[in-house]
Amino acid sequence: MSADSEQRTIRCLIAKVGLDGHDRGAHVISRAFRDAGFEVIYSGLHRAPDEIIQATVQEDVDVLGISILSGAHNTLVPKVMAGLEEYGALDDTLVIVGGIIPEEDRPGLLDEGVDAIFGPGTPMQETIDFVKENAPERK
Amino acid sequence: MGRAVESDLVERLLDGEHRALARVITKIESQSPGYRDIVSEIHAHTGHASVVGITGSPGAGKSTLVDKLAKHYRDQGETVGVIAVDPSSPYTGGAVLGDRIRMASNVGDMDVFFRSMSARGQLGGLSTATADAVKALDAFGKDRIIIETVGAGQNEVDVVKTADTVVVLVQPGSGDDVQMLKAGILEIGDVFVVNKADMEGASRTVAELQEMIHLRDDDPTKGLNMGHHGAGAMSETPGHGGQDGHGGHGGQDGHGGHGGHSGHSGHDSHGHGGSPHDEDTDAPDEGEAKPTWTPQVVETIATTGEGIETLAETLGDHYTYLSESGELEVKARQRAGEEIRQLLRSDVNRLLERELDRRGGIEQFARAVVDKETDPYAVTEDVLEPLRECLEDGDD
Predict the structure, then answer these.
(1) Which H or E run contains B54?
(2) ipTM score above 0.95
């Protein structure tokens, strides 16, 4: 109740990148995040990496969640990461990837700067807890 | 975190760094420590952008219209900032901010800065946060700023009132929209847009709006009588719900009390475009004819972009009127006054909350009131006393 008590709300962008029309997972996670008290911006389907970068930078989200089920993650995710870097948004954005990511591709994505990958069957609470614990400080 | 961080952020914002602008708005939105210093610093750099507020019921097509309008401005070489305000859950504080999804025409164009904001349960503070975010966009150098919000209540009305020009978006053919007008939105609209103008009932909605605008304009007791007219129109509307061809007629007949006006305005409503100067004759006693503004009704189909150019022109006309009539400055002063009042209210509120805590919290006072040991007025008097003494001492 102090005068400058900050109204800390975690902001997330849930993004569907590329030619991938499967958005049930993105919807479910958007809703779970909302119910966890986060502010969720949903990108809509078929977004280009540029759009995701633009939205992440402008909305100053704490968390970028990329949902990919098309198998194009090795092409699309690095593009997004490079764009975030260009606008100085990489360091203070928690990037998580969800969807179908084969085990052998994961180290590569993590090397690109992705903070975590959540495959099918991950309990919702696990993702929410991860975000709550790792959402970067805003300075 | 010292002032250096804030100054550096402001400097980067003024240099045109997108990330800095985004971060400043975050700070404003979350009221982080130091955000007031930032707003103070950027204040001197504001005042160049024209600000349009767009409101309307959910699904009326606000986001789509904003997208097309932004595109129009971009095509003219102007930069655009958009602030889209969405409600948040009163229970969890969570929100899904969905306006961005419609910004399809400005994909990857960094010169359209689109920012979603949620209400975050800031009591009355939303308009302050929005106004401050607008300042940030203004100082950044945006030529046009658009504020978009659902016209759901007083909070949202306060938000759009931070704009120079207020656009109210109306959907054709539903009584609910007239409800919205009745709830006070009509009074704040400078331009009314009947979107989805290809839908059945659009022309009737246009006629109804023009009718209401005329009544508001012609009536010497305008403000006072609004409620009455609104109510009249309301009670009439359901009866004519399904009828289309003669619907417009029915709406006008609803205002029986103003028979003379009704027939007249129904007749010339299309010609009465309300160019900035056409009401001069209404004010013959003023030595110098001051331009006045009659709210305009514009038809658009946002999905195809039809009517967007007319809308942009009308918005331009209104801005010209504002600057020529001196109304722009008047509005700016009113807004500044309102901002000061709002800040005073919230700061005093916080001081008093702390005072309450210091005295052991509101709970015990509440209990004492319920137990009839005291009453709310006495408690208020008691808590306020030091403050009152302090302020009134200054007078002596």
Answers:
(1) strand B50-56
(2) no
